Structures are given as C-alpha cells and as structure tokens.
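Quick one - first record:
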Amino acid sequence: MASSSSPSTAPGPEASESVVLHAPLPGWVSALGEVPDEVFAQGMMGEGLAIDPLAGELRAPCDGRVVLVAPTSHAVTLKSRNGAEILLHIGLDTVGLGGRGFDARVAAGDEVRRGDLLIAFDLDAVALEARSLITPIIVTNGERFLFSASGTGAVDADAPIGIVRLRSEIEATAVPGPSSRFAVREVRIALPNGLHARPAARVAATAKQFRSEIRMRVGDREAGARSPVSMMALDVRDGQTIELSAEGGDADEALAALARLIEVDLPAVEVHAAAAPKTVAPAAAAPAGVIAGVCAVAGMAVGPVVRLDGRIEEVAREGRGPAIEAQALDDALAAVCSALAGAAADRDATVAGIATAHLELVGDEDLRAAALKRIDEGESAGFAWRAASREMGDALKATGNRLLAERIDDLRDIEQQVLARIAGRERDAPLSLPENAIVLADEILPSQVVALAGRAAGLCTAGGGPTSHVAVLAAAAGLPTMVAAGRGLAVVAEGTIVLLDATSGRLHVDPAAEMLDIARAGIAASHAQRRSERDDALAECRTADGTRIEIFANLGAVTDAAAAVAAGAEGCGLLRSEFLFLDRDSAPDEDEQHAAYQAIADGLDGRPLIVRTLDVGGDKALAYLPIPREDNPALGLRGVRVSLWRPELLDEQLRAILRVTPAGRCRIMVPMVSGLDELRAVRARLEALAGENGGAAAELGVMVETPAAAILADQIATEADFLSIGTNDLTQYALAMDRTNPAVAAQVDAFHPAVLRLIAAAAEGGRRRGKPVGACGGLASDPLGAVLLVGLGLSELSAAPAAIPAVKARLRSVRIDECRAIAQWALDQDSAASVRRSVEDALAPSEAGMKA
C-alpha cells in the first residue's frame, strides 16, 4: 500500500546512487523514438522508453514519492530516491478521455515502493477511445540524470528495463556563481521554412561564442541552443514565437546576440531555393521495364549501371575501454572537421555552403555528448557514433516536416564520414567508372555527389527528395538526377544499359535499341548545341536582322568576372555589392570595398561595370546592422531605404566606387527606388563626395523593382542616367507573392502578363526621355524571356554568366520585328502559362533552325 508522508521526508536531490527502473506493467518495450507522438518521440519531455501494455495495472517502477497525478488519472510522476523525476503516461491523447476508464490509487505526496499499484485502468475501454495504448516512461529532469535502457522486446511486469544515474560533473550544468545571471527573451521566427538546418547551424555557432548555458523553448519543447540537430527537432515553424533563456555571466549579451541573429540576420530563404528545379511527380504505375521516380535535376543520360554502396554498416559494439574509444571518436571528428573546413574554403559556393552546414553538424555538442554517453557505457566509438546519429535522425523524421526529414541525408553523410575515419580509411566514390556511367544507389550522400561530379553521367536513388543537398549539388554539377525511385531499383544489375530520363522521372531498364538510338541522338544534339553556343558566345550579339543587343553578366564575387568574360559577357550589368557585406561581423571599410571593385573592373578588362549599391533588408540581413523587427520585411527597410537610413554606409560605398580607375569606369545603380526623392538624395551624396576630390560624379541609374518605379519610369528617367529592370523583385511586388515562400514561389513567374505590362511601361518611359533601359533579373537569363524583353524595347540584358551563350544564340535566331510581335501577343494573354506557350509556339520554326 502507498503511504502518505510529508515532503520533508522525500529523497533529496543531493542523493547520487543509481536507481534501476522496473517494468510498471507487462507488454512490449520499444524505443521512445517509435512512439507515434512527436513530443515523446523527439525526447522533448526527456529520455526514456515506452511499453505497449498487456494488463490494466500501472505499478511503481522504483521506490519514491508521488509528485503529481494528472487530474484525469491517466498519468503520474514519481521522484525516485536519487532525485530523478519519472513520468508514466498511459496511452496517447488519453487526457481527452476526461478520466473515463482510469482509477488512480495514489495521490501527490504519497510514498510508494517498487511494485505498488499507481493506476488501474480498463484496458479494453481505453483502447477503444485512445489513439494508442503505448505508455511512455520518461526521466523528465534529464539535465541532471542519464537514463540507459536495458533493451527492447517482450517484458514481464517488474522486470528491469533501465537504469537512472546522476550525470557526471562534466555533463552537469555548472551551478551559477555570484556573478551569473538568468535572462529570458522571446523572439519571433520569420523563416518560410522554419528553423531548418542552415539557420539552426548559425544559431548554434553564435551560441558557442558565449559561456552561458542557453536553451530554446517552444511550448513544452526545449533544446540546447548549441545543438543544431536538437533545435531542428523542435520543428519550429514560420511565425512561431520561441523563448530563449540563458544562465551565466554573459547571459544578457548572449540573448541580445541571438535575438539579433534570429530576427535580423537569418536569411528567410530555402536552401538554394532559387536553384531548386521544378519536379515531376512519378506516375502511379509505370510500364514494364520502366522505373518511375521524381525529377531532382532535369536531363537525360544513357550508359551502364554502376551500383554505389560504400556505407559502413557492420560496427563492433563492444569497446576497448572508454578512454581509448573517446579518443578514437575525437580523432575521427577532428579529421572530418579538417576535411570539411578545406571544402568550405576551397570549393565553389554551392559545395562550400553545404560543407559549412556539415561542419556544424560534426561540431554538434549534443550529438557528441550522446555518443560519449554510450562510450562510457562500454560501446565502441563507431557503434556509439552511429547510434547517436540515427537517434538524431529519427527525431528529425518524427517531426513530419519534409524539409527537415531530407536533412537526414546530411546526418547520414556525417555519420559515414566519421565511421570511415574511425575505421582508418577515407570514403570516396568508386576509383574508376565506365564511360557514361549511371550511378544507382539506395542513397547517395552529399560528399559522394561531390566526388562523382564530372565522372558520372547521371544519378538515380531509391529514396531521397528533390530539395535535398544531394539534389542541390547534382544541379550545380549539371548531373541529371532522379530520386524516390523505390525498391525496384534494387533489381537492376550492375552493367545493365539504362536510359535515365530525369526530366520526366523515368528510368528505362535495358531499353530497345531504337529507343537508345533516339535518346543518344537527342543527347548528342543537345551537347552539340551547347558547344556551338559556347563557341559563338564571344561574338557580339545581334538579332537576325542586325539589331545590336548588349549582353552583360550579373556578378556576385570578385572571382566571377573572369568566368563571365569567358562566357561572352560584354560587361557587368549588375554587381551585387552585398557579397562584401554578408556573413561577417562588421561592414567592410572603404579600402576593402575599393580593392574588390577595382579587382572586378580589372577582370572585366575595360568592359562596363555597373555596381548596385548595398541591397539588404528583407531576406538579406546583416548581423551588425540591426534593423528593427518588421512584420513585413519585404515592404520595410530594403535597398535604398537602408542606405538613406544609414548614410555613413552609403558614403563609404560611394567613395570606394569613385576611387576605381580609370575614372568613370563604374556606373552606379540604386535598388528599390519608388520615386524621385530617393534618387535625388543619393545623387546629392554622390556629387558632394565627388566634389571633395575634384572629380566628376559617376553615372547614376535606377533599378526598377517596384510597380511605382515602373509606372513613374518616364518621370524618374528625367533625372536618372539609365534604368535597369529587376524582374525578380518586380514580379513579387506586382503579384503580391513572396518569392522566398515555398507555398507560392512556383507562381512568382516573370512571364505573367501583369509583369510584362509593367516592363513595357518602364521601357516606354525610358525611351521617351532618351535614356537606355536594360534588365538584370532572372527573366533576362531565360532565352525565351530575352526575346520578350527585346520585343518590349530593351537593348541591354544582364544574365547569369552560364546563361549568356544560350541567350545570345536565341536572339541571333530572331528578327527584331518578330520579337516585337511576340511581345505584343504576350501582353494580351491571361496567364504566365499561356505566355510561355505562345512564345514557344512562335519560336518553334527558329528552334528547328537552331538545331539543324
């Protein structure tokens, strides 16, 4: 029988002996991660396990005192003699039963012995009404206690199921000293994809700069702010308010820095959202010999199958001793960190960004602590690391968030890289691949894609998703890739000739010779066309009837200039100067800016250079420029508004541009202008600064990105030296759709007739004032879009360097009167889709001519 006693006789928190937990009821033990409820599965309440019960009596798993009995009698919390608090929760969503079927036999304050009856319940009645009978058993004060389960499977009542021990001094949170502070602050998440991998990694990196213990809380879920994986497992969504708490001597400074990071500096964009390809959903059924999947990177390839499975699965469980295994783990982590740091510094931007995110995962404190805990219990470094990684992966999967679930690829990659180092080898793609190899695998990890780039002709995986880092890397490498092909992929033998049509989401296994001939001819024609376009890219661009169209490049770094010139750029129509300002702790000074602008001007070898003044705010924030929180950042302090708000930044940038030699090499373009007053303010500063050194002011133009600027283009052109239409932002503002929001991003299409009419108005306004009008948005990088822009009256286009050969080739195939007729027809269409169809249909004859 349970007996009542005063709280003063309860076991104190100073007790330190271990406590063995015994099964409170008979049934089937499973890992907590298998509980179909994210609060329990993700460990948000704490560590533990679950039992699917076979009897209707819940008994005490150990000696202790009853701390709490739920008013509906479906749950009870005990405090064991060593101070561990143990929650026993019968079933899922059983609070909704209002107590029906439950009979509590104890009350708060009662002392109980192991095996005492806590709650009797009607097993059948509760099973009929509850979502599940599975009963979580959780240690809720896990910051002080470690729980180790004995295993899973069938268990009898009162059988040992685990042990609860006080954490070591190293693992325990230090007791705050006299100078410590405890601070709490609420911040709002304004990220379309929530707190996913990259922003979580940046939060963790910032938290690690402070000594204080920092926690993040959402509702009743909590995570350490130094662990990006734990934060991702909270599944924090866009618009949610989170609570940050810090305890330590620098608590106030830590929370101020994190609040500024989260509310100001975290970019509200999907990982490489702009580069994410449109996907083609697999058909419900595919004909014999065809495997259906999802397009991750469009394209087609024919070649022999190479199966890739370099995973390390067999790992010895028993260790050689905690000290030896802990050192082995730390050595492996250090080696992987070194390799990733090299990739982050030396590779292209796509690879570097993903390597940086992986670097944070390798340095995740919670992940390492979970592995070390297992090592202390006798497991080997490899076994402990793999188990800890997969527990984290299970937590991400349990969120139900597709984007976070796809980040499991990154955890698996890091898991395998560390396992390989522990085993004394480096993971790599196959040393040799046959020509045109099509690589098939259950999964391909990001690091393997980097190794396969330029060596394989195509990739196809049984699992994965189209927005994973694998897809991003494959797109950067131009590698046709299909994902989510399913189990049928396993039966395709090594060496089989396949046709991978990633664009339509089909893998044709051992296709007929006629199909292969047609596919190879199409691939060869596509390659030949691209080669021809590259060969002709250096020549100036004229339409078929001789109209001159200047094709510039959009640049975002010093190293882009040479590549742009090699691709056929006739200058830079848009230098995104914010590349100098992002991802750093302070603004670049005048000398640093001047050196960068001068290097780009030199790289262009005398060609024109248009520098856009700092364009931040909205989805591009600076940690050192704390813009006040805005409910609608895209409609607040952005572009020129930030420059006029912080004129010292504008002055320093203008001085740096004016110093570029020879004088007059650079032109300056102001972003996000909505009226003449903003242009006049910038011109006043430009002329004043030029006058200080006795020089002439550079040409000053306006970027037409707001509907207001497009409508007032004739007025703005009276004082602007040139206009350049930024079709990306103009589209989102015209359609009132955020292009960084995945829910509507596919509809933010610059081919929309409303956008085209605004472009036409801007072009006409500039023409009437005799000012040149160009375009530097994504529409200018699309060959079909280029035809429309020229037809609407533009004579200067600035495109992504890689798109320049194709844009020039397309414009050379049409006459100026054809462009104008196509554009006029497009203005009368009723949707972006109909505009695309009309342009494609009109250009079909010239398309045939280009391929001939």
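second record:
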Amino acid sequence: MAILNANLIKLQSRASTKDEAIDEAVGLLVNEGKIDQRYGAAMRERETVANTFLGNGIAIPHGVPSARDLIHDTAISVVQVPAGVDWGNGDQARLIVAIAAKSDEHLEILANLTGVVGDEVLAEKLIATKDKQEILAALTGAEAQGTEAPITSTTPPAPLEGFPESFEAVITGAHGLHARPATNLVNLAKGYSSQIRVSFGDKVADAKSLISLLKLGAGHGADIRVSAKGEDALAALAALQQAIATGLGDEEEGEAPKAAEDTVSTGSMTMRTWEGAALEGVAASPGLAVAPVLQFGREKLVYSDTAENSEYERASLTKAIETAREQLEELYADVSKSSGVKHAEIFKAHQEFLEDSDLLSAVDALISSGKSAPAAWDAEINAQADQLAAMDDALLAARATDMRDVGRRVLKLLAERVEASSNLPTEPCIIVAEDLTPSETAELDPSLIRGLAMAAGGPTSHTSIIARSLDIPAVVGVGKSIFDLPEGKTILLDGTQGQVVTSPSEADLKAGQAAISAREDERDAQKRDRFKPALMRDGSRIEVVANIGEASEAAKAVDAGGEGVGLLRTEILFVNRESEPTEDEQAATYTQMARALNGLPIIIRTLDVGGDKEIPYLTMPQEDNPFLGERGIRFCLARPELFRSQLRAIYRASAHGCVRIMFPMVSQLSELLEAKKIAEEVRLEVGADPVEIGIMIEVPSAVAMASVFAQHVDFFSIGTNDLTQYTLAMDRLHPLLAKQADGLDPAVLRFIDQTVRAADAAGIWVGACGGIAGDPLGATLLTGLGLKELSMSIPTIPEIKALLRSQSLADNKRLAQKALEQSSAADVRALMGGAP
C-alpha cells in the first residue's frame, strides 16, 4: 500500500507558525485514518528534543518512538507553506513532510528527501508548485501521472544487468543495515576479488563500501538482492548468503536505557521531580551528577583550500589515513580494556570508513580539481555525513557523528596548524558540548567527568554507548540553549530522566547529593570489605583471585582484595619487543610478582601463543586453521629450548613465593606427560622444590579425558573462553558468530560439570579463569557447579566477593542443576533472572 497519495498533500497553506503547520499535517493523516489525533502531541514533543529542520526549506516533523501505538498505518503527509514558518534557530520551513512510521516503510521517501535537500533548484520547485503530482513524483520516484507508487517493494529488486549471479534475502536485524552488520558485510565482501552489489528498491550499493551500504537505508525486513561477478562470485555469494541469514552479527546496538527502576544497580535512585528550572533532553546514560559546567571547545584546524601539487596532496592524505588507522587500533585496544570489546568495536567501524572506496574516490576527484587534501577530505566527509544525518532511522543518522569523528581525526593530521586546544577538564565538572565524538568520549577521564550534557545526539549514538560503559550520566538532545549556561555554574544532571536542572534549588541539590551518595554507598561498602574472604552464608569458602599480565598488576590485585593470582599470562612478556626475553629477565619478573603477593599463590601459565596470538620473532608457522594448529603446549613442546628457559625462570622464582605452574591447551595425555617430564628435568637442574602443576581445561578432549588427566595433576583451571569456542565450534572473535558463543550455553555448563565431577573423584580442586568467572551470573553458576576458585579482572574482584558473601552454596547448587537442564544460553539467562 502506498504511504503517500494526493489526499495527503496540501498546497498553498497559510499556516503562520510551526504548531499550525504541524496541525495541518496531522489533520491530513487523521482524515485518511492513518493516525490517532493524539499523535500530533507526540510530534510537538519530538520538536522539544531535536529540531527536525533538514535544510533548503524542508522540515520532517515526526513523533517520539513511545507514541507509535497511536499510528494505525505508516503514512506521510506534506504541507506546502510558500511564505514559510519559523522552525526555530532562524530556519524557515516551507515544505513540511510529516512522518508517522510504525516501522521502516518510509525510508525510501526519506532517502529521496536527502536528494531534494541537496538540490536547491528542485526544493524551490516543490515549494512553489501547484501540482501535487510533482511533489508525489519527487518523493516517491513515481512518474507525475496521477498514479500512486509504493514506497517499498514486497519483493527484492530485479537482477542487475551484467551481474549473472545473485540471491535474494531479507534483512532480519532489528535495526537493518546499521553500522555493525554493514561493517561485517563489508569485511566479508572484501575477502573476495569479485565485484559485489547490494540492491534495495531502486538503489544499488557497493558491498565493499560501508558508506554506500548505509545510504541504502535498508531497515528491518528489507527485501534485498546481492549480486556478484568475477572468478569467485559463487563463493562470495555463498558466504554472504549465510552471513545475512544468520543476522550479520547484529545485536541491539545502542539500545537506549530502560526506565530508571530497571537500570539503577543499587536500587537507591527513584524518579524525582526537581524544583529548579530544567531543560528537557533525552536520557542517554543513567545516574545523577551535581557539578560545575565546563563548556567544551574543539581545536580550530587551519589549512589552505587549494593546492598546486596534487601528487603531494595524495601522498599526504595516504600518510594521514595510515596514521589515523594506527591511532584507531590503539584506541580499540584501550577501550577494549576499559569498557569491553563490544564497545571498542565502534572504532573498527571507524577504520572501515578510512578504507571506503566511494569516499576515497570522491576525495581524489576533488584533489584532481585543485583542492588541497584537507579541503577535499573535509568537504566529502561532511557531504556524506549530511546524507546520513538526514535519514530518519536514528541509528543510521547517528553514524553521521561517527563519520565526522573519523573525518576530524584525519583532518587534524592534515592541517597546517592547530589553534586553541580543546578545553579539557582539570577539576570535576559536567561537560556541555554540541555532541562529543566517540573518540573524545572514550578519552575522557571518568574521575573528573561527573556528567555529559549535549545539545545534539541521541541515546543510540556511540557516544552515549561509551558514556554508559564508563558509568558517566549523560543527557543528549537538549538543544542549543544549553550553551547559555555560564562556565562554572553548578547544575544538576539527571541522566535517568533526561533533564538538566539549570537552576537547582537547595532542596534539589540536597536530594541529588543524597541519591548520588546512596548509589556510591554499595560500591564503597564493597571496596571496604574487599579484604574479607568470599565466605558464603552457609560457610563455604570460594577463593577469588586475579588474572594479570604485568608485574605492576600483582600488587594491584592484592589491593583490590584478590587472594592471589589465578592466571599470569606470560605471553605479555614476549610481545612488543624484537626478541624473546632471557631467562634472567623472566625470572626477575616472576620473582617480583611472587614477592608482591607476599605468600599468596600465583599460577604461572606457560607461554600460550598460536591462534589469534602471534609473536613475529618466534617464527610461528603459517597455518590454514591456526586455532587447530600449534597452540599452547603444542607450541612449547615443538620448541623445547624456549620451553625449558621459561620453566627454569619459573622454578627460580618459586623460591620467593607460592608458585604454581599451569600448562595451556592440553588436549592429549601424551602432551601432559611430556610437559611434566621436561618440567621435572628442569626442576632438578635448578635445584628447586616441587610445585603444584595443573592444566587448563579448554577443549572437549580434555573434558572427555578429565578423569585420566586428574591422576597426573594437582588442579584444573577451566578456560571458559576457549572451552566455549571449541565446544560450540564458534570462533569467539568471529564478527558474525561471537554473539552466539555464550559461556552460559548448557553444552559448556555440562562440560564444566563433567570436569568437576572427575576432579572431585580424584581429590583435586577446580578453578576458572575465563570471562564468565568475573560475571555475576557466571560466578553464581560456577560456584554452584563446584568450582573452588574464580579468577577474574582486577576491578571486578570486590563486586564478586560481595556477591558470593550474599549467597549460599546450596542455593547456587540448586540453580546450577536447573541450568544444566535448559536448552539454550538464552534459557539459562532467563532462569538466572530469578537468581539470588
């Protein structure tokens, strides 16, 4: 069914205000039975959150998402106001396109509107026309002959001429081809030499161009066709078809926060009514903040508009892009460590923008025309970002900020000089800005930033996602009036309700500080009690220890309440250098850690490389399946001198503390026996006392043979990350499958249960050092399955110890047994919703 027809278009309106224009647009939709009259209020509410003026006299009012139940059928109405109405910020709207969308059927019209906005002549023609069919044709792509054209097709586009091979598919992700799935599609497509195109409606995108894919506007349920030509076309299409069928690794990107009662971890914060004057925005990251305002400013980048030597400009651009790529790789690593891989993936998408063929070709053309590299880059980045920003899909529009972030990163490297450095905070504050880029947000110091108040932006932007990961309260979409706040003025920011209280009363400040204190009390209590043992309510004791990789982290682990080190990743000593560390270097490092633990145990894992862990100077083999090749103990046994050197260093350090040795990736008994034989020879050579020796349980064969292995070791440590990937045959780093590689899958839990039962029968203990050990749900189930030790990242230690002290082992055992009976990880997590 068409969502725009002649009855939904009004020409020559005399509306004199924004409200009158919206009322007329709403009236058209109501008369056609498309919406409830009350949806008009939802459109006005949207205008208080974000101005819907696009440009060239065009505005696109639409309601807030919570009012979608007032929409009967997706439709669009058009009100032409030749004299114009004030749409705010000095903008005059003369063509009002009101949108009532239940899902994404309106995307093609929005895409067409992008073209109109960029064509001043066409925009003026539509504003002045007295023929409804001209408006209908421009917005739907139909010929102006009185026929209605459907906005989206119920069938995929026809095959592309010149592309003999293709398949049809439906985009199943909740948000369509937004950044993450589009990035995954691009990365897959780039693995093939063939030309690959994706068609949606009458648009065609290059599958190897992220920008091109995003501009398709293909939302949830979109019917697409993927076409290819070239020598590996069939292989490419087969891989892409499977990837699209499994969702392209999509997930709920940038899900906005739930209601306050669902998001506040301490339960101490409630919805409040503030007395002082407040600016309304959109809740982006929950929590309260009371602090002075800091108006954030960016550097001014100075560069020439033109250049004479185009080859020099191209070389400068290439160098800047390569440097930007390295910076993003470093940022990815930093954010992975502070906020998790999920949030760091944002910067992988940023890297993809740098390689976009459409973007680079357009920039090159501008350089050829005489533009300087920075001028050409800036112009094309902004042009592409403007097109994304004009789209009504919130996630796709938010990617405009990401593109500008990438653009500014490169532009800063190309600029002739940088003036007026950013106004970075030196004291606690609430930052006020237009809209921080993801890079700027990720580099903020959470100890100084109490909150973020942004004039623009949305709750699904990557900036908001990172703010939530850093636990910084944030309100976005407040509007430009936020800039009227004087520097240093104390304000109250309510990230849960989406309000910035600009003139808080004494009562507001008192209530706000009380709520903030209540939220921090639990964390403080956990920190104060961090040295208490994890003694459960029924007297059961669980050892909570740390995963570390550097000497300095040993003392930090103890200070966080860790009762030792459950995993020392020794491969950290081997990276970022040109040759392997000597025996003396290793012995000194291990000794320093053992002494810092002051008698607490430290489990030193022997070198675990291979798979995704590469160390160039070790001349690692080229393998088709590195995760099934020389990994862990296999690698060391194939290089006995390297192995013996490390073991000698470990035994030398054992004289200074409670040292245990652990062999990684053991899959066969012969590997364990050979490793123990070498270790004993080295021990006698060094003259050290015996130490406990254990193995990691990471592969199904180790589980199957656990009862046999248990006769030869002192302990097991379950590496849940690798055990999950090998049990489910899913690469935990795979862009499409990683989401399904869940350590709480019943298959993994059953393997853990089987391992513990074998260990119990042999009288040895079992620990875990994978990711789920430091997760509240995982810790609950692992202890219920009988694990005696949990090893985790240092910051999570106080929380997990406090959690275990609040539980009883008997309750956890009952819950674990129920988890073993579930059919999927989702079922396990649903069961855990009622966990104590």
